[in-house]
Specification:
The complex is a heterodimer of chains A (about 110) and B (about 110).
Chain A (H helix, E strand, L loop, with lengths): L4 E3 L2 E4 L5 E6 L6 E8 L3 E9 L2 E5 L6 E5 L5 E5 L8 E8 L9 E2 L3 E5 L1
Chain B lengths: L2 E3 L3 E5 L4 E8 L6 E6 L6 E6 L3 E5 L2 E6 L4 E6 L8 E8 L7 E3 L3 E6 L1
The chains are: A mainly beta (about 110), B mainly beta (about 110).
Chain lengths: ~110, ~110
């Protein structure tokens, strides 16, 4: 089975621009979660989608948004980029997001905001 | 809210045993995960504990005490390839799939 895939792997943007990142979960997985990883803050939860609905949201400003498609693929969007948005954005998938399930992470998209 | 603490860095010798501790304070608890992350790579799943006790998986074991808000990851017969960051993550009750991660422990294995 193919793992979680994320595109693009690397991205350079400038302040004020917006960016869209994509995540394809493991086949059959319907829950997709997004995390931001920075050296200072570590891994922080952004949001989770299941069956095209946002099920949980972390403590991030409204500039961060996402969506999930009927095939479980997910995208996240960051508008009006700030320097502090430079980070590794990780996507993780699981079957249905129940308590016992393991989340499997993709390789991440490394975003640099200049 | 949730707070998770783990040491920032540890060093150990090849062939030895190392224990990485994690303490947590959560509003509700629904499982604790350990992930390994090599530099520049994605976190990979190591273990999951939801009940008290020890879970063993080959060279890796993980322990949980819910009453103490404490877990540890035990790595035996250390190999150079075990040099990585080890992330402790907790899922709170009614938190869906949201994991709260500690800052990670960077383990350096020396020959």
């Amino acid at each position: 089975k193919a793992g979680v895939t994320q595109t693009p792997r690397y991205l350079i943007k400038t302040r004020g621009q917006q960016v869209t990142l994509s995540c394809s979960p493991i086949s059959g997985h319907r829950s997709v979660s997004w995390y931001q990883q920075t050296p200072g803050q570590g891994l922080q939860f952004l949001f989770e989608y299941f069956s095209e609905t946002q099920r949980n949201k972390g403590n991030f400003p409204g500039r961060f948004s996402g969506r999930q498609f009927s095939n479980s693929r997910s995208e996240m969007n960051v508008s009006t980029l700030e320097l502090g948005d430079s980070a590794l954005y990780l996507c993780a998938s699981s079957l249905s997001g129940t308590a016992e399930e393991t989340q499997y992470f993709g390789p991440g998209t490394r975003l640099l905001v200049l | 809210g949730q707070n998770i603490d783990q040491p920032t860095e540890m060093t150990a010798t090849e062939g030895a045993i190392v224990q990485i501790n994690c303490t947590y304070q959560t509003s509700g608890f629904n499982g604790l995960f350990w992930y390994q992350q090599h530099a520049g790579e994605a976190p990979t799943f190591l273990s999951y504990n939801v009940l008290d006790g020890l879970e063993e998986k080959g060279r890796f074991s993980s322990f949980l005490s819910r009453s103490k808000g404490y877990s540890y990851l035990l790595l035996k017969e250390l190999q150079m390839k075990d040099s990585a960051s080890y992330l402790c993550a907790v899922r709170g009750r009614n938190a869906g799939n949201m994991l709260t991660f500690g800052g990670g422990t960077r383990l350096m294995v020396k020959p």
